[in-house]
Design a protein that fits this description.
The protein is α+β, with helices and mostly antiparallel strands. 25% of the residues lie in helices and 46% in strands. It has one domain (17-84). A three-stranded antiparallel β-sheet has the order 3-4-5. Strands 1-2 form a two-stranded antiparallel ribbon.
Amino acid sequence: MFGFCEQKGQLQLKFITEDETWVHQNCHETQAQSMALIATVFWDMHFVLLLHFSPPNETVNSAAYQTTLKKLKRAVQRKMPQVADNSVL
């Protein structure tokens, strides 16, 4: 994803990158069953914009991903207002 930001008369390109990974939680003291979540992180060159953990047993389908993208859009509007107005999001 990317957006454009006009600042001081210059056009600046802003990239947002995304990655997903499995996160496993094990509790050895209680011998509880391990839990696995999908962590999705969005960031730009300065900071993390959104860290989203999918609920256990949630199927990652288009509806779930659209919900995550809506959260990302709100995060960009809150953390990068100069980009959010002209964004491609």
